[in-house]
Amino acid sequence: MPEEDEDDKAELSEEEQAAADAELAKRPLLLAIVGRPNVGKSTLLNRLVGEERMLTGPEAGITRDSIRVEWSWKGRAVRLVDTAGMRRRSRIDAKLEAASVADTLDTIRLADVVVVVLDAADMMEKQDLAVAGRVIEEGRALVIAVNKTDLLAQDRSQASKQWRKLRDRLEASFAQVKDVPIVGLSALNGRGVDKLLPTVFETYKIWNTRVPTPKLNRWLREMETLHPPPLAHGRRIRLRFMTQIKIRPPTFILSVSQPQELGDDYLRYLMNRLRDDFGLPGVPIRLAMRKPNNPYASRARKQR
Ligand SMILES: Nc1nc2c(ncn2[C@@H]2O[C@H](COP(=O)(O)OP(=O)(O)OP(=O)(O)O)[C@@H](O)[C@H]2O)c(=O)[nH]1
Ligand SMILES: [Mg+2]
């Protein structure tokens, strides 16, 4: 786990929020570029900074360690980190992997936003899903870049079929996130590359979202009314109180009368509505449950 930042806590006064925003604008966005070997990660970094900073080449495994490049985009400091390609394995396991892959995993852990680069010719292989899954597990903000689109079939219906398949696989694979942003580009000829950073910053902003507690609880009452929780042991499960305890990624705690009985379907309903109602697409959000014998529950009672 990376160190918790003091300003990662979700509950802030107005002044604290303004100070946090100013601080956020000052510190560099840590942007990691990861993916399988040879997908064009280093070529993309070179294209972004407009210089041949990284060695690139047709054979896999050119980049061996994570390499940082300090850059700025529209006046915003960005620390780009190029990484070694993640080799094809049935499972990513740091113990079994070469040091370079362990290094890439460390880079993911410390990043704010991670761009997972895919090759348009064979996008969303198992290994791509494993890498994207790791990014989500670590709670980082994820952007998918489909590179080498210059090699895609000129046939439009063929190409749009491929895109749909990519979306479907993403949706089916990760329950924690919906609507992961996908940017198609060619690092080689530059087409589409200008779309990447606006998407990265947008996702970064969402990853830093704070939902005020009163708003969250008004919402919770509404959700409960619209779709009451199930009965358990003859009694209606009560959703007592909800609070966001952390940002980066948005993390929520729900105090509920019988947590183990609420069920995945109901949790999924809450997660999906949370994502839609507060505009949190594309970033992993976390929702944990607690029994009401905690300070939030007593606060909830006082508020009502
Ligand atoms: N056609 C095409 N080729 C590309 C594109 N981007 C990169 N390449 C080529 O793909 C090969 C691999 O590029 P690299 O940038 O070295 O790939 P990498 O992901 O950094 O590879 P590793 O460091 O080995 O993991 C090179 O021959 C590049 O010229 C692209 O958009 N289109
Ligand atoms: Mg490379």
Keywords:
single chain; 304 residues; alpha/beta; Rossmann fold; GMP Synthetase, Chain A, domain 3; 2 domains; 6-stranded mixed sheet; 3-stranded mixed sheet; 20% strand; disordered C terminus; binds guanosine-5'-triphosphate; binds magnesium ion
Q: What is the name of the CATH topology of the largest domain? A: Rossmann fold
Q: How widely separated are the two ends?
A: 37 Å
User: For the residues shown, what is the average pLDDT?
Assistant: 87
Total count of strands: 11
Fourth-tier CATH superfamily name of the largest domain: P-loop containing nucleotide triphosphate hydrolases
Low-confidence stretches: 300-304
Radius of gyration over C-alpha positions, nearest whole angstrom: 21 Å
CATH C-level name of the largest domain = Alpha Beta
Shape field: globular
Main sheet strand line-up: 2-3-1-4-5-6
Enumerate the distinct ligands. Answer: guanosine-5'-triphosphate, magnesium ion
Largest sheet: 6 strands, mixed
- Helix content range: 25-40%
Number of continuous helical runs: 10
CATH-defined architecture of the largest domain: 3-Layer(aba) Sandwich
- Global structural class: alpha/beta
The proportion of strand residues reads 15-25%
Order of helices and strands: HEHEEHEHEHEHHEEEEHHEH
Q: Tell me which oligomeric state these chains represent.
A: single chain
Domains (count)? 2
